[in-house]
Amino acid sequence: MTPSVRWAFGSFFFLYFAYVGLVSPYASLFFLDRGFSVIEIAVLMSMLQVTRIVGPFSWGWLSDYLSDRIGIIRFCACLAAVTFLCIFFLQSYIAFFIWMFVLHTILSSLMPLGESATVHALFKDNSFDKRYGRLRLWGSIGFIAMVLIAGELFQREGIELYPIVGAVVLTFLALVTFRLHEPKMERRKMVKGELLIVLFNPDVRWFLLSGFFMIFAHAALYVFYSLYLADLGYDKFEIGLFWALGVAAEVIFFYFQSKLLSRLDAEVVLQLAFGIGLFRF
Questions:
Q1: How far apart are CA 205 and CA 212, in angstroms?
Q2: What is the pLDDT of residue 20?
Q3: H, E, C per residue of 229-251
Q4: Is the pLDDT of residue 111 over 80?
Q5: Start-to-end Cα distance in the chain
Q6: 46: closest CA among 213, 170, 215?
Q7: Under a CB-based contact definition with an 8 Å cutoff, are residues 170 and 77 in contact?
Q8: What is the band of 76 on the pLDDT scale with cuts at 50, 70, 90?
Q9: Closest CA to 216 of 14, 49, 84
Q10: Nearest-5° angle of CA 211, CA 238, CA 11?
Q11: Which fold is adopted by the domain 3-184+198-280?
Q12: Fewer CB atoms inside 10 A, N or C side of the chain?
């Protein structure tokens, strides 16, 4: 992977998670400002997770069928940027519901395909252990930068700027995808029932089940955390600081990931993560 391609993938992670750093803390506050109830906001925010049930699998199947991950990433990034612009014209709750579903169905392609392309490119030049954590680190930095900058901006100028910030971030994300590149994919013939064989593997089943419970446990946090902090009297910049504190742990982990995984099995790392998560709650 050349330096320019590493820069492109780092920028891709930075901008994608900058968007996540905008939506996770501030979308609920934006919807609250639009006059929606807590239940209505919860349904809207749940679209981020609902669309990940089928979206990534469908986009992944399409990328395997076409053997063109980067092409699909570019298409979806551009389509997401255009779709986001609809926010300036939405009025009703139903319109916002449909918009959130469509937008995040499109966006659900970017991270799975982006991760796959990154891993593929790094393995091709035998640099995965050394460089993957450092590249993903930029995603956490993008998240932290956005929650802090947007928090200060919204505190000073108002949450009404949320649509403008989102449109700018997704536009730059779409532009960066045209700098991405990965080695040619080897098209492999799909075997009927292959997916079921993988899913019935006990290790895979337990891993997916653990992932389900981890996300389920955090569902209330992702949806209501900002509303809860706002109700306690914290301003938008302070809310951003609380979100940034959590992601700072990701920065530390990704920086030392290669050293940590060289000393501990991945299973042990997962167990530690669940234990720390339980203690945190």
A1: 11
A2: 92
A3: HHHCCCCHHHHHHHHHHHHHHHH
A4: yes
A5: 40
A6: 215
A7: yes
A8: very high
A9: 49
A10: 55
A11: Growth Hormone; Chain: A; (1.20.1250)
A12: C
